[in-house]
Structures are given as C-alpha cells and as structure tokens.
Design brief:
Its main location: periplasm. By secondary structure, the chain is α/β, with parallel strands linked by helices. The protein has two domains: 35-116 and 227-323, Periplasmic binding protein-like II (D-Maltodextrin-Binding Protein, domain 2, 3-Layer(aba) Sandwich); 119-224, 3-Layer(aba) Sandwich (D-Maltodextrin-Binding Protein, domain 2). It contains 15 helices and ten strands. The protein has helices at residues 10-18, 48-56, 58-61, 74-82, 93-101, 158-169, 184-192, 205-211, 220-224, 237-242, 244-263, 265-275, 280-283, 297-309, 320-323; strands at residues 35-41, 64-70, 88-92, 106-114, 129-133, 149-152, 178-181, 198-202, 215-218, 229-236. The strands form two sheets. The chain has a five-stranded mixed beta sheet with strand order 2-1-3-10-4, sandwiched between helices. Strand 6 (149-152), helix 6 and strand 7 (178-181) form a beta-alpha-beta unit.
C-alpha cells in the first residue's frame, strides 16, 4: 500500500532541522523488540535492493522493522527527514550536496546506487540514464545540442549537472544548451511527438523510447565518471548522531541487500512490479545500475566540484567527510 506524504514547507523543515532534538534514545535494536524506521523512497529501480533485503530478512536480523513510504520525489523526502517524520530517506547525491551547502543537517548513511562499466550497454550512448532524441531527429550527436532544448525531470540537479559535465568532456560548450523541466513519464510522448528536442530519461524510459525507435546520444553519467555515485540513503545528522548502533545495523542490512541484488539481477527484475509501475515484460528488458556497498569518494568529489563550478552551492563548505557517515 502506498502512503501519502503530508507536505512540509522546505523553509519550515530547515528551521525544524536546525533545532531538531533527536528521539529514539540511542537504544540498541533487538530481534525481540525491533525498532521501527520509516524510510522515504521513490518508486524507481534504484531502491530494489532494499525491498529484496526486507524479503530476505536482513533488516529483521538487525532488529529493524522498516516501513517504506513512497513519495513522488526527493523534494518531498528531504523535508520529511529533516523534520523526523521519516528517519531515513533516499535521494540523488547532487540534491544532498546542495542541501548540505545550504545548511540542511543531512548525512549520507549508506550508498544507494551507482553505475559501472560492468553494467554498461554495448551502445556507449545508451546508459541507465541517457539523453535521447527522436529516431529521425536532426540531432545526431552531442555536437548538435547547442541551441536546442533538453528536458530533465528537475532543474539544477544530477541530470543537468552531469549533462553539462559530459558535454564539456566531449568538447561541447554546455552554455548553449537550454534545459526545461518535465516529468519522466511525459518525456516519452514529448520526444516522439518532437515537442522537445531531446530528453534526459532513466530506466525504464530509456528502454521504452529506444524500443520505439528513439536514439540515445549521450550516457551523461558514464561520461562524467565511469563509476558515478548516483544516489544515497540519508538521515538528519542530529538523529544519526543519536542512534549510531541503529544506523550501523541499517548499514549492515543494506550491505547484505546490495550484495544480494548484485548477485541476483533476476530477483531485482521480479520485485520491480511490486512497488513501481514497471510491468514484468518491461522489467525483464531494462538495464540495471550497480549496487555498491562503499561510498565512492572520488566520484562524490566530482559531483561536489561540478555543483560548485555550476554555481549551485550555498555558503556552507561541503566535503565527502561532511557528507558521509562512517559506520
């Protein structure tokens, strides 16, 4: 069952976060008296390992009862975590980097999802997330993008940040590319009907579009970093500091979940229809990301540097050490 998220204004959530009194008392969880954690998730492929971990009993072994709540996106999850409505959330790493730079007390507690050469398609431009154009578009490659409009799901986020970085790596000036916001599900028709020049989409939409004749022209994640660290699970820093044993148990369970998902891609595909709108037939064909168990510090540094270079950071300094929790 999907649970509705009650909207919390970001400004109010920030004030709450800065004055947050962590609850839970730091008591160690146990199998006999499991500690319930509410976790905010997005219904996408990336969080499949967590659902598999619940099924495998990894969290129960650590005395943790997870209550997954599905939200439309990170914009809803971040304020819910900082206000302690959720104890843990899931977000792309650029959102977390920007949030910390603007004073939000957020802390990464476990790696979420990444890419790796082992998971890459034989088509170098078709990645887990890619810039895609209509099959008969005049845009044949990245050199044709200046002067054109590319749709992304959220502006000033991991999509356009890595597209700009990737274009620079290919010798293309990103300043000439216009970006516009459009939800992922709406991008399929927008590309096919040529209402936009190109779209940045992630699975399952890469498979849907290319299966209908669209062309992938840029794997922006891989061009930015072949092992790009894309997303993480995170908590409010005061709560994390108050509950180290609980977080250590969560991290151990997540590590087992990520390893299980990496070793059992068919199980990943099988669980997707249970919490997403991806049907079994599509799930059997889509590309999968990689599921790391360690934070990739060089990759996170690249995202910090690109976010700073593109003028997205606030006044607070951000380092990998300030972002990650050492469990």
């Amino acid at each position: 069952m999907l649970t509705r998220l009650r909207a919390i204004p970001l400004a109010a959530a920030t004030i709450l976060a800065l004055t947050l009194c962590a609850c839970g008392g730091g008591a160690a969880p146990s199998k006999d008296q499991p500690t319930k954690l509410t976790i905010g998730l997005i219904p996408i492929v990336d969080v499949a390992p967590l659902y598999l971990g619940i099924k495998q009993g990894y969290f129960k072994e650590e005395g943790i009862e997870l209550d997954p709540v599905l939200a439309a996106g990170g914009a809803a999850i971040v304020p819910a975590v900082t206000s302690n409505s959720y104890q843990i959330g899931f977000s792309n790493n650029v959102s977390l980097i920007i949030g910390v730079s603007k004073g939000l007390p957020l802390q990464m507690v476990s790696p979420g999802v990444a890419i790796s050469p082992a998971n890459r398609s034989s088509n170098a431009a078709a990645g887990y997330c890619s810039v895609v154009t209509a099959g008969d578009s005049a845009i044949k490659g990245t050199a044709d993008l200046p002067g054109k409009t590319v749709a992304v799901n959220t502006l000033n986020n991991i999509g356009d940040v890595t597209i700009r970085a990737a274009l620079e790596a290919e010798g293309v000036n990103p300043a000439g590319v216009r970006f516009t916001e459009l939800p992922f599900p709406d991008m399929v028709a927008a590309v096919e009907q040529k209402r936009i020049d190109a779209a940045w989409v992630c699975e399952p939409f890469v498979t849907k579009l290319t299966g209908n004749g669209a062309r992938a022209i840029l794997d922006n994640y891989a061009k930015t970093d072949p092992n790009l660290s894309v997303a993480s699970y995170f908590a409010a820093k005061p709560w994390a500091q108050k509950n180290p044993e609980l977080l250590a148990g969560f991290r151990r369970a997540m590590d087992k979940s990520m390893k299980f998902a990496s070793q059992n891609p068919d199980a990943v595909r099988a669980v997707l229809p249970e919490y997403t709108s991806i049907d079994p037939a599509t799930a059997s064909k889509i590309g999968l990301p990689s599921f790391p168990t360690d934070f990739n510090e060089p990759s996170l540094n690249k995202l910090i540097e690109q976010s700073k270079k593109q003028g997205l950071l606030g006044d607070k300094p951000v380092t990998v050490q300030s972002l990650t929790a050492k469990q």
